[in-house]
Amino acid sequence: xxxxxxxxxxxxxxxxxxxxxxxxxxxxxxxxxxxxxxxxxxxxxxxxxxxxxxxxxxxxxxxxxxxxxxxxxxxxxxxxxxxxxxxxxxxxxxxxxxxxxxxxxxxxxxxxxxxxxxxxxxxxxxxxxxxxxxxxxxxxxxxxxxxxxxxxxxxxxxxxxxxxxxxxxxxxxxxxxxxxxxxxxxxxxxxxxxxxxxxxxxxxxxxxxxxx
Length: 212
Ligand SMILES: [Zn+2]
Known about the structure:
212 residues; 8 helices; disordered N terminus
């Protein structure tokens, strides 16, 4: 049986503990997300501090989603999804520098669209060796666009170039869904602690019976 501290040749690198679901990481993530989301709402469209706060909120939203959907998906897709959920906003740089070739007629750059996800998914089909990374990127983009649509004052032209229509929904809906995710994550935490406790309980009698 492989234990956490055992290093085996060829074993996958141990994931960062900060990305593991635990009462401590969940508490920190929820508090940080609440602060970042609230702050980004107050900061509006400002580059500083609005930009960093918004990216922190994107990162933590992706983490809460992956904590809720299970360890297998987490192992395969979490890191590329988290990277993509922040990196996609690099497409705002040309607009911030005054060039509108990536955003003429839409509230956000054209790369904030379902077309970007489709391109990544098509690449995943054509490049099987990097399928998990690319699927993670696609999931990260989807989560990012979903949060962007809840930001007041700016929407997402999801269907570009077919349509320039900006899609948006109330921020309260985003908060409600995140609250549901936190509830799921909390339940998983509690269940895991109970499972560990039960394992400990079953292990205790074994040495005693052997001694007898
Ligand atoms: Zn964005």
